[in-house]
Amino acid sequence: MSVRPASVGSYLRAAAPDRLPEVVADHLRTWFPVKAVELLLSDLTLSALWPVMEPEAPAGGPLEQRCFGSQQPVTDNGSRRLLLPLTTWGDRLGVLRLDLTDTLTSELAAEITNIADELALALRAADKDTDRYRQVVRRQRLTMAAELQWDLLPGRSLSGERFRLAGQLDPAYAMFGDHYDWALTDDRLTLTVLNGHGDGIEAALLTTIAVNAMRNARRSGAGIVEQAELASDAIYSRSGGAAHVATLLLEVDLAGGTIEAVDAGSPRALIAREGGITAVSLEQQLPLGMFGDSRYETQKVQLEPGDRLLVVSDGVHAATPGGRAPYGETGLLTALRRTRLQPPSEAVGTVIRALREYHDGDDQEDDAVIVCLDWLHGKA
Q1: Which residues form a coiled coil (predicted)?
Q2: Banded model confidence at residue 1, pLDDT cuts 50, 70, 90
């Protein structure tokens, strides 16, 4: 008599990176009361979930979207359909949809949830070695600038015991240099929002240089001052001061809530606290790359448990479509108030959708970044 394997992980590690959905589907149909399996991945705009195994099938419907948005299992059809979120370290990838031949039990749900978790981890690792999953989530061709910037992103959300974090970039398929980066080590979260000067491929190249210079310094143990100075030197050596990268660098102490900040340009920070939203007042320093041997200083900001920190690029706060007033002076606070009960992964999408509505059919003249951080430490 065959014995069910304790884990699907060994099969996933042995599989070709582009065959992970089929490996999981075969495993589920062999060992569980499962008759049909589909993997759905979120597109770049986080607005739809698209099937991987039957790519010609329609996008996921309301149940799939509810599972993705809530990050909770969803059942339907008399508990004969199960939808499970696919998430790694808080980064939402998609949904695993199963049709069962038997009624779902709590024990069965727990076992299949473990399999979904292993699949999510394997998908994230495999993404470096196959284009299959990226071809699904791209609904049109990216510009070369967008290709550079999507490859540069750390992810779209991240979470831990002390925090929840998410970022979104828009428009997804054509970009002009706005970007974000983050890294977590111990209780230190480094967060950067930046905007390369100009547009198209030149702006993306400047952003690429800045991000990689800051990563190089950070991975060598440098703080955000040295990160800023190394990136500024690298940009200046390329452009001689003719181009720059406006940047806000933040290092968050997740244990105590203290933020060290280097404000080198146009990204703006706000804090939502107990129903109110206030701008973070920082002394602005020169954008990276304007002069050789630029030097930077840090400023401090203190978070309180339960605070939400929001950082927006100038493509958000300074947007003036059709000659309207800057979005940061009118619609931004209204949009942010709508996000009060949403997790960061949903809040960033709410703000981006409101920004699109503000454009009222006009093309965006600049790309837009919003990053949302909830600091949970000490919150009951």
Answers
A1: none
A2: very low
